[in-house]
Recover the amino acids of this structure.
């Protein structure tokens, strides 16, 4: 329904812009006739002008933004541009109405304010219910796409990583279990045909991921886990503007940063129970993998906080680090152009030391890779990346801001180092 509504807005904005540019006099006569019926003074035609050209260009831009969002609603930059344009026009119409004492301008402000509210409501609905629609419905050439869930049981400390992945070459379901009691790490995988999306459900040869449940089986293991997204909003950990500029060929969204998981995983007849296990649900997609990256995600339920970091080597040897912090359900991002360069990351073997700057808050800390699973990501021609991933890693951080300090610490963090093999 959201896609169809956005497509309707795209057609509406395009039609209104065309009417003002191609038939300004007729359009103003119609508006003035409606105003006269309501007891308002008529609007005087202004003829071709700079402002008319700017009006046409603005309508073209917001029509295009609406169309692009109808094709892919998960584009924060496009949403922000569309909402900004409607907020600005509603405010300016109110100012014009007060200055010229023209009620027709107030009516125009009301129309734009209604559209602004409706668009904001649709965006909010999308944020509250992370979708499972594919980002590469019509891939060209090499591509990859994966949904993954990771969660840690608070009583036993055991952790699970479930990954549903498809690419130009192959598809698979992968389960990895971590036991901190003895450092055991077990991985089971099942090759599959191409992923099938049926409404809000992703299927891979019997294994399924929906908005409420994870089900599947792989080489002597099976799982049935219910999940809920929690109140933290999703976050584009790889900023949309980075992908728009072509600086990254891959995207990553944390669709549910503070999700909760409850259910059972059976490994060779042994049941692993999970009850209200904190974790996250992530979505990765792109035309190509990156050259390598470091990633960490840590939930701190007692402090009502979640911290996530992604660091990758950029051009000319620079390292760029994006970060997201959720406190009390509120999202703070550190992913602007200056933040990516200003945030600091360095590694000493398996120890990662970081510093990230958020609005009003600085997060400084470190994490150390725990007992790990090793996965090789292959990409033709002959390109291989070694992924070292642990869901039972230690992470500590100190948050400073507004004269206050909060210390965070966990041994149930997800930490991943990926490098060319």
């Amino acid at each position: 329904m959201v896609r169809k509504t956005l497509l309707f807005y795209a057609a509406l904005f395009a039609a209104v812009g065309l009417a003002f540019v191609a038939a300004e006099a007729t359009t103003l006569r119609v508006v003035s006739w409606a105003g006269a019926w309501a007891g308002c003074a008529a609007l005087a035609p202004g003829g071709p002008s700079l402002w008319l050209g700017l009006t046409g260009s603005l309508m073209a831009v917001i029509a295009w933004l609406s169309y692009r969002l109808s094709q892919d609603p998960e584009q924060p930059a496009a949403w922000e541009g569309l909402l900004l344009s409607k907020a600005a026009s509603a405010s300016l119409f109110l100012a014009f109405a007060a200055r010229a004492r023209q009620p027709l301008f107030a009516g125009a402000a009301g129309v734009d304010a209604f559209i602004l509210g409706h668009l904001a409501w649709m965006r909010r609905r999308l944020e509250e219910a992370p979708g499972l629609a594919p980002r590469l419905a019509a891939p060209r050439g090499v591509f990859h796409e994966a949904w993954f869930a990771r969660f840690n049981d608070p009583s036993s400390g055991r952790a699970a990583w479930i990954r549903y992945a498809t690419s130009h070459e192959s598809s698979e379901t992968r389960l990895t279990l971590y036991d901190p009691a003895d450092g055991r790490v077990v991985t089971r995988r099942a090759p599959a045909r191409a992923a099938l999306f049926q409404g809000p459900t992703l299927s891979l040869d019997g294994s399924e991921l929906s908005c409420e449940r994870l089900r599947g089986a792989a080489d002597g293991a099976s799982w049935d886990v219910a999940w809920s997204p929690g109140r933290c909003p999703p976050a584009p950990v790889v900023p949309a503007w980075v992908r728009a500029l072509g600086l990254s060929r891959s995207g990553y969204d944390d669709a549910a940063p503070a999700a909760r998981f409850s259910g059972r995983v059976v490994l060779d007849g042994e049941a692993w129970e999970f009850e209200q296990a904190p974790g996250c649900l992530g979505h990765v997609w792109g035309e190509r993998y990156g050259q390598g990256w470091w990633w960490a995600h840590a939930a701190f339920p007692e402090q009502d906080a979640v911290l996530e970091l992604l660091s990758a080597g950029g051009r000319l040897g620079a390292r760029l680090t994006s970060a997201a912090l959720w406190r009390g359900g509120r999202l703070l991002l550190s992913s602007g152009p200056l933040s990516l360069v200003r945030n600091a990351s360095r590694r000493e073997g398996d120890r990662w030391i970081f510093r990230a700057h958020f609005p009003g808050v600085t997060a400084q800390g470190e994490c150390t890779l725990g007992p790990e699973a090793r996965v090789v990501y292959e990409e033709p021609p002959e390109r291989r990346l070694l992924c070292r991933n642990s869901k039972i890693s230690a992470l500590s951080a100190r948050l400073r801001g507004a004269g206050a300090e909060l210390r965070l610490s966990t041994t149930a963090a997800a930490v991943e180092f990926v490098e060319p093999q």
Observations:
- Confidence is low (pLDDT under 50) at residues 136-141.
- The longest helix spans residues 103-128.
- The chain has two domains: 2-128, 144-420.
